[in-house]
Amino acid sequence: MTKESSALTDERILQSWSRNSDPWVAAVRGKEIASRALATDAAIVDAVRSCAPRTGVDLGCGEGWLVRALPEVSMVGVDAIAGLVEAARAGGGGEFRVMSYEEIAAGRLQLAVDVAVCNFSLIGEAATAGLLRAAPSYLRPGGTLIVQTVHPLVSCGDAPYVDGWREGSWAGFSSDFNDAPPWYFRTLASWITLFVDSGLRITSLREPVHPDTGKPVSLILMGQLPG
Length: 227
Fold this sequence. Notes:
7-stranded mixed β-sheet; globular; Rossmann fold; two-stranded antiparallel sheet; alpha/beta
């Protein structure tokens, strides 16, 4: 692996997900991710439904499970990884497009939906910031962006509680996974600042908890575009 490809960058995230798209589809559809089955899947569905949307977009849709979990919403799923979009189209339930966050930030998505969802799909640095700043290009006035991400206090581990790149890990996943993508850690304050600086008014902050440990398993932020 070259020095450039091993760097902690948004580009390396895409490289890793391209290599791991098949095992990811198998893991999601086989319900192999315990935290999702116990709490986070239901939490994001409940967050979307609390907005009573008619239209929506799943940004970083993966293999499309969330689109199919919301049959009452006219959904578009978008992902940069062609293999994941192919699996999503095969599963049906909505429209699916191959498009990167950089392309969305440049205004190419051209939607005006009630709700945009990023479910554990914002792990980069510049790409994440660009996607949030582009909210007016895919949300209608008064629409809501919903982000579910790892909980900063829990995911920080023993590292300092400051923004920065972290090495990824497939611990707990099958041996079919390799070359874990890096991810950009953000504190709670940084997430809030990112929403506010993108022109989104935070209307709700949720912390789903593990039913057995009582510890938070994720953070859900909901921000509304001015009407």
